[in-house]
Specification:
The protein is mainly alpha-helical. 21% of the residues are buried. The chain is built from six helices and no strands. Helix 4 (75-110) packs parallel to helix 6 and helix 5 (118-152) packs antiparallel against helix 6. The longest helix is centred in the middle third of the chain and has 36 residues, at 75-110. It has two domains: 1-37; 39-186. 88% of the residues lie in helices and 0% in strands. It starts with a helix and ends with a helix.
Amino acid sequence: MSVEDTTAEAPAARASQLPSALIGLAFLVVAIVFAASSSWYDTFLAVHILFVVIWIGGGLFLTLFGILAERSRDPAQMAQITKMAAFAGEKVFAPAAIVVLAMGISMVLNAHLGFGHFWLIFGLLGFASSFVIGIGVLSPRARKLDTLLAERGPEAAETQAAISQILLIARFDMAVLALVIVDMVTKPFS
């Protein structure tokens, strides 16, 4: 990409910022109006579901791209997807997961459900599993991968092995979270 291409893209990127901000503001205003006409439980549920979509939907999207990158056997593409997943995990998914948990707890307390139901326990265990995998497994591996990419490049066998491990662990995490969704909707053994 030449300098001219870069400078030509900059105004286009800035030009979309105002419409994007206006769309976001319109969404926020309408969402507040909707929430104001609903019960607290329904408001908590709406926020809960919105952030589940951001968290788990985004994770499933990146998982799919990880699988496609592996099938392409393109080391640079696999490294890029893994780096995007690490960024999203830290900057998007972790905060979204905290909102999901807070809204879930708010719903249980608001509806006086109690935490003794199987489906709630399973959901909390799924959340805890994902939290531990993200903080204790994926995050350290992502830092190690950054070092490998800088020192050895994306084509190195050790780098590719690290990428494959991260993508496999992320698939397991997504499977657990998908089961949590099924659990939350079906409420088994209730």
